[in-house]
Amino acid sequence: MIIFVINMKKIFLALFSGLLLAFSWPAIGIFPFIFLGFVPLLILEDEVENGSEAFGYSYISFMCFNIFTTYWVWYATPLGSIFAFLVNSFLMSIAFYAFHKIKTITNNRLGYVAFIVSWLTFEYLHLNWDLSWPWLTLGNVFAESTQFVQWYEYTGVLGGSFWVLLINFLVFRSIKSKQKIKSVLLFLSFFLIPVGISYYLYLTKDYLVSKGETVNTLIIQPNIDPYTDKFNVGYEEQLKDFIVLARSKLDQETELLIGPETVLQEPIWENNIEATYSIRAFRRLQEEFPNLNILVGASTYKMFGHLEKKTSTARKIRNKDIFYDAYNSAIFIPDSGNVDVYHKIKLVPGAEKTPYPMLLDKLANLMVDLGGVSGSLGSENKLSNFYFNGINIRPLICYESIYGEMDFNNSDLIAIITNDGWWKNTAGYQQHFSYARLRSIEQRKVIVRSANTGISGVILANGEILNKTKWDEEICIEAMVGINNNPTFYTSFGDYIGRVSLFILVILILVSFIKERLRK
User: Fold this and answer.
1) 291 phi and psi, to 5 degrees?
2) End-to-end CA separation in angstroms for the chain
3) At what angle do helices 108-126 and 78-105 cross, to 10 degrees?
4) Residues 6+ apart with CB under 8 A from 502
5) 420 lies in the same domain as 451
6) CB burial class (10 A; 0-12, 13-18, 19+) of residue 375?
7) Model's pTM, two decimal places?
8) What is the mean pLDDT of residues 137-151?
9) Which pLDDT tens digit goes with each residue over 157-196?
10) Which of 151, 283, 329, 483, by CA, is between 20 and 30 Å from 182?
């Protein structure tokens, strides 16, 4: 009976921790819960008898966290969502297990350092491998409360993760400590100082325009249902509807027209891109509006010459000795000059690429088309800018907008194009839009965002929303957007917090290994 009660208490603590984490998340709950989310787990960890228990109970917490926050993935890919829930929870539990083992072998002081750095290392590595899924990076929790994290221009979201972990530890320490007043004062200091710094930055700096220049922009949200119309209606008709919608707000002063991911449904071969139906239609539009530059999403293809080196993602045309690559692309049609194409770099694991194809190639058969071309897509090795009238635009396609450490040097404006309709009317598209607010703070650049179905809008360089659309709305947004070419500290140094955490964790693991060997 006593054992049953103890186990029920541990299960309750595990579930309570998972629920606190989940109900702190954007579009689901309120962010202050995040500062308590790990406290029940830390209490539980202090009571477990071995590493298996620490791993098992934390797995319950993190499974709860993952399901409640990213349940909407189910709408796009049921099997993929289950895989994501299981694997992401497993990886989080590994980080918690590492903390428990180091604490058990060494001492409390090093152990709680390990609590912070093991989690930060997990998040950092999770940003940089084939199964990357950083949606639940703890620093993302402030996406709808950006006034609290204006210092992300120095730290990126991992700075927010560090803050969350530190406050959780200090709350736990206050509960356990006999010196309550000292512990509470320490907690309040580390909570209020970052808030004060953030509000100082928020209130005293003007991030709207640095060069004193603006771009007259028109953002299109065509609102085509990806499950019914998008891939069943002819591309000529869809393009016609898009141009008709754009014409309703276009004028001779419009400089930049932005359309969403894969808005062009025509199979576009880059080898002869100017001859395609869609590009010719846009060129005719530019004849009427000569100052107009156009940025839209498309599924594109590039054929390899017989002597040209093939990529690992190259596909063969059936019964022919011809190879090509397929891409999720952003196409830029300048008012003068050649069409430019950017290929998405950060591909969605399972949907756009097979992670570690040597091991997981069979999963390719389970892939879902999330934008027009499924299977393992080709990609670029680095980000590139689109250029017009002395202005550099950095395009980001869908999933790429949840990554902070990408090369934003020499860019003036960030353009995000996405679909978002796959997740239906859920928290998914709302979170995705909110995460873009964090990118604007990290880079101190205005973001223009075009979603097929979801939320389109303009986000200022301090994370504030200038304007945005509603869900399930066919609409155009006109905006005069400011540009900023000044790099931030984070632009220059990236996720240094993750790299430092990895270094410290390696040292702690070595210390633990040596100490355990000496005991034997």
Assistant:
1) -90, 5
2) 37
3) 150
4) 117, 121, 124, 125
5) yes
6) middle
7) 0.93
8) 98
9) 999 999 999 999 999 999 988 787 888 899 899 999 999 9
10) 151
